[in-house]
Design a protein that fits this description.
The protein is about 5% helix and about 40% strand. The protein contains one helix and six strands; from the N terminus they run ββββαββ. The chain has a five-stranded mixed β-barrel with strand order 1-3-4-6-5. Strand 2 and strand 3 form a beta hairpin. About 20% of the residues have low confidence.
């Protein structure tokens, strides 16, 4: 199984390109993902992970994601190689996004309404009928 789940901040705005053969949109960006543990006396370190989003998901990312924004990405890890004009072989490892989420809390004073929920393409949930209802935190079994 090849599945990557990441949450981090965009290091730059997504860059949009189109393929030469089929004119398919592809958005590229990188996430700064904090490492889980911090060594005593050192600053928290981050890994910078390249992300590629194709088609409609790439369009969504290029339209709504901005530098510094915290996002969640679910996808698969992919490696590829190519030779440049001088015959030098290049290797790259990246995550091909399959799902993209907003992970920042809504900013104060941001009253903009959107038809998108926090998940790419998801419409807001208007179903208020639920089998479960929690009245207070004291009622939780854990």
């Amino acid at each position: 199984m090849n599945k990557a789940i990441l949450m981090g901040r965009l290091t730059r705005d997504p860059e949009v390109r189109y393929t030469q053969t089929s004119n398919t949109l592809v958005a590229s960006f990188s996430l700064a993902v904090n490492r889980r543990f911090v060594r005593q006396g050192e600053e928290r370190q981050a890994d910078f992970i390249n992300i590629v989003a194709w088609g409609k998901l790439g369009e969504f990312c290029s339209k709504y994601f901005r530098k510094g924004q915290q996002v969640g990405i679910i996808g698969r890890i992919q490696t590829r190689t190519w030779d440049d004009d001088q015959g030098q072989k290049h290797y790259v490892t990246e995550v091909v996004a399959e799902e993209a989420y907003f992970a920042d809390s809504k900013r104060d004073g941001d009253n903009s309404s959107s038809t998108f929920d926090s998940t790419f393409g998801a419409m807001p949930n208007t179903n208020t009928n639920s089998d479960f209802e929690i009245s207070s935190g004291d009622d939780l079994p854990f």
